[in-house]
Write the structure tokens for this entry.
Amino acid sequence: QVALLDIDICGPSIPKMMGLEGEQVHQSGSGWSPVYVEENLGVMSVGFLLSSPDDAVIWRGPKKNGLIKQFLRDVDWGEIDYLIVDTPPGTSDEHLSIVQYLGAAHVDGAVIITTPQEVSLQDVRKEINFCHKVKLPIIGVVENMSGFICPKCKNESQIFPPTTGGAEKMCQNLNVSLLGKVPLDPQIAKSCDKGQSFLSEAPESPATSSYKCIIQRIQEYCDQHHFQEEKII
Amino acid sequence: LFLFPAERSNLAGVRHILLVLSGKGGVGKSTISTELALSLRHSGKKVGILDVDLCGPSIPHMFRVQDNDVHQCDSGWVPVFVDQDKSISLMSIGFLLEKPDDAVVWRGPKKNALIKQFVADVAWGDLDFLIVDTPPGTSDEHISTVEALRPYKPIGAILVTTPQAVSVGDVRRELTFCKKTGLPVLGIVENMSGFVCPHCSECTNIFSKGGGEELAKYAGVPFLGCVPLDPQLSQSLEEGRDFIQEFPKSSAFPALAHIAQQILDGTSQQSS
């Protein structure tokens, strides 16, 4: 049973990617109902609270924090195995607030996404430092957009060149886990735009095997730590 | 009759101020800001870049000056010049960090205070263009920057998107931000628009195609052009080199030059 919480308040992309554009949130006695993609996958996003795709959420920090609090407090998720929180880029209000508000709960950790080039790694090193600062464990790093295989000639190109060794070198230097590398596949953008599952649409793609491998590693990490937690109890 | 001259604002010598915005992260705002500055310099203009992305300041690295320090003068902070000619100058929080990996973990109010300082206290001198590079979104940084710049009448904003709908969806909101804050929209750039394989020249639309142009049409704003994915461009940025100078034959060059030309045409129209 999975819940996906989108706390990118200014740029809520999750509804579109999940094929849930235009859906609205319903209130009941027990709180806000998540919007369900499938019986075991519920989603919440500010996107569901906007009436038009042109509506902008032009809010300063405190108002964004207030909504994040509401999302955590008022959404009736039910019993869930995984709560995944999608965040905007940065190390600011949203990030501080989510860590703070989830302080009483047990957060397994963070998965950090980067692309191979130094300009991206620069920012990700800061994100890793943020995690250390707020004592958020790091499950690992994913190197996205890692190489492109031309569909015609099958040669590989590094569109975002890893001039400083990519995520691999950074993870070595900072002693964090590299969960995997996902190559560029035009089908990914297409599936996201159509709101369909890329994994189902393109089961043979090298990107699909990468995703699956990464997801497995994340699950293993969570199972291991859950087991350790239980041992302590 | 002796009159004390009014204190000259640090932006008094800046002829045109423009913002580079996007609703979406990772679309290449800082790349476009950098390439626009280089293009304008090649047309003989003096350009400044104000980097108000406080959490992810990318501009210093793109000009290979990330290790530089910022000095003070009587009128405020001296911007960092990228070359001997002093034709491009920069200001970024990147120069103020003790270590490059230091995270700026600030909430809104602290960010707003620094942005106000950045707008008022950098001694730019005389510039033809001040390009303001922003983080993605429509929040503190954007509200504060627009408010602080309002008295200096920016000429407008360039909005950057990638072609696919997920990106366009966020940039639509950025257009609304511009409307609500009275910021004119100079146009939309569709970045990462197609990739030409260097081995066989086949063009693949990795991030789909056409979303930027459609959005411009829908919103009634100018479409400034498509910039293709170009590993030579990425490589140049990584190494802090002048792409415009070194790769005039590359696939991204005509698009970037065309965007700069439209900006120049727009401002010369204004003057006449």
Q: What stands out?
A: The longest strand of chain B covers residues 14-21. The domain at 14-271 of chain B is CATH 3.40.50.300 (Rossmann fold).
